[in-house]
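Hello again, I could really use a second opinion on something today. For a while now I've been wondering how a particular protein folds. Please have a think about how the structure follows from the sequence. Here's the protein in full, and shout if anything looks odd to you:

***
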Amino acid sequence: MTILQRKKPTGKVTLKVIAEHLGLTAGTVSAALNNSAAARSIPEHTKQRILQAAWEFNYRPNFFARTLRLQRTFTIGVIVSDIGDAYGSQVISGMEQHLQERGFFFLLMVHRHDPKLLSTYSQLLLSRGVEGFITIDTSVTETPSIPTVAVAGHQTVAGVTNIIIDHKKAVRLALEHLKELGHEEIAFFKGQPFSSDSAARWAAIEEVSREIGIRIRPELVVQIEGTETSPSLGYPVGKELLARRVPFTAVFAYNDVSAIGAIWAFRDAGLRIPEDISVVGFDDIPGAAFNPGLSTVRQPLIRMGQIAAQTVVDRIEKRGEFPHEIAIEPEFVPRASTGPAPLRSIKKEELQESRTPVG
């Protein structure tokens, strides 16, 4: 007789009820539903029977009973600089998928680059019994008391696993793309000091530029200011670059939102993309593919979130070795925002200020 043919139990459905229905022990059913270490010894067809029965009987586990019984909360504390940016939201999406599959919850705190809030929220999450931390674009400088994974973490701290992009390879992909198109006068946008990737990415730009023969001119380097998470971040940076009246044919921006904002500024100044100026971004956020398609370095952000979640859960449950760093391979995505360098750089008189401010 199949599960579908058996008579469904009446009344409250518990682990014991499902176990008796399937002719299994309650421990086996619990291990399969919680995907615990003991579940690895359960045959796959038995796991599927258990999961199917739980779904058919609309089984609802008692979270508090489980927490008291196992002395665990199955909760992760997530600390992020800003929840509204495309970078963080993509990482969180991937993280959420994996934690849900493993039966974990997460509590999210947004510190908005305030060191006091960061410290306060860390202690608050610990008081709520979180079993591990995941930080996103947030520097971890002190040894944590629980397993911690830092997405875009660059500090070597005991007990912290850093998930990083290979910045040197990423920069090389972008700059070699521009060099192959004939660009020599390249402008650069530096990331805000509070962004955890800023220093590492700029160091990679300086190193790769020396290696492939690209000159970094200080007058073509613009520091991004502000905390906006929309293209309005890059609009004033693009205007400032034009106002310096120094010829250039291409821009390598710190991230996609600053690149898109700069494109707005260049277009408002009557310049064409990519006929007059080529623009390269970094991240490959969802909006990067449109109007025009932005050539960019792709970070697999959803995958990075999944890896962060998997790593912190494995560390909590003491599976495998503790990795101090996990490096992710980047990919370059050429689109419509880059093209061959013009025969001459934009003349100074053509570098006019933009006509209208961003709304």
Notes: The chain has a mean pLDDT of 87. The domain at 73-165+302-329 is CATH 3.40.50.2300 (Rossmann fold). The radius of gyration is 25 Å. The first strand starts at residue 75 and ends at 80.
